[in-house]
Protein: D-inositol 3-phosphate glycosyltransferase
Organism: Streptomyces sannanensis
Amino acid sequence: MTKRRDRRRPRVLYLAFYFPPSRASGVYRARATANHLAKSGWDVTVCAAPLDFLYETIGSVDESLSETVDPGIRVERPSLNQYSWQQDLRDFSRLRRTFPLMARRLYHFGQNKVFPERYASWARSSVARALKLHARKRFDVVVATGNPHAAFGAAWLFHRLTGVPYVMDYRDSWTLDLFHDQPAYPKGHIAWAWEKRCLEKASAAVFVNDALRNWHAERYPEVADRMMVVPNGWDADVISDVFEPAGTPEPVQDDRRPLRFVYLGTLTAKQPVEEMAQAFKTARRHPELAEAELRIHGHLGFFRNSPQSLLIRLGLDEEARRAGAEDTGLRYCGPVAKTEVGRVYEDADVLLFLAGGGRYVTSGKIFEYMASGRPIVSVHAPDIAAREVLEGYPLWFTADSLDIDALAASMVAAGKAARDLTPDQRDAARRHAAAYTREAVLVPFEDRLRAIAGR
């Protein structure tokens, strides 16, 4: 019997609320992690968000992403109480329709006294589902990625009931507000107690950069030796087509056509949108950027009501058009399926890296940008954590501020570099990016996971 057990593949339960077809920003790390573990011989089961929540409630999906998930991965979709999202009376439960005040009190009691997150019901459902699966075939380890951080609570509870070790993947911080560099909750809030409880029992805690790891290590020194960094990376299975054969002529050298600047990714209200638009407008007055375009590819926000406010901030709304606003060169090109991003990079001369937040933010998109071997212009706060990976990238142009004129000067310099770019320069840029393939960054994580699971 012992021999049969040793021969079976190591089995992992992966608690990842945002998993394809979700198009949330964190889904790419979850997709890559699950695929890497499956490729490395693990039996992978994912507990993810229910599909009706993704399609009907938040309308945030990219179905092409599902095609990139290893077919051997089992995906479970435990239920979620959608109390706080429901706006239509017909969607209310019988309790809420009949006793609305009681239903509200019960909901807020759960938020204030049990677990401080509206995804808590999904965590409970995930534990219930996992216990049934575990009874049939034992899990060796649990990996929980947050947000939502109810995943951490679920991993803790499952460990308490079964003894299976777990790992917390801080894809996003829980108690640190990344956009204001300060605690997200007041002293004494139950989120602090939950984080401490979860970290104390975790076999490892994973962060996306050193700044985040250090912030948590200072607050939880007793578990600092179990903390590690697993940066984000770029997905070679998705953008490999960007790599032209060695010696391919650089397209922008062939003529004096207008340059194409590109932003690729979900644009959000947290990013310095106005600074980017104004700086490009200023840069476009330089002869080098005459008639240049800034093409914005991606979704505008994560939710259905997000696009209009962002179009206004970009000066691309219908009212601006009717008023005969000046052509600033900005073009909104719409969403791009993950499997089509290679084509966008091929058409780009210069990439704009736009990020909100400060010294704890890396952004997953920067790795993909570097892999393209194009000049990159930074549009973000100067002390952002993404500097850790951009340092040494030979085609990086940064103003070290959000000053409009300084940003515009960076854009002009990057445009000149794009026109003069040689194959050797592009190869050097790609060599820098090669250290950040998903496979490269996930190998140490998988090794750690095997050690924890004893497999």
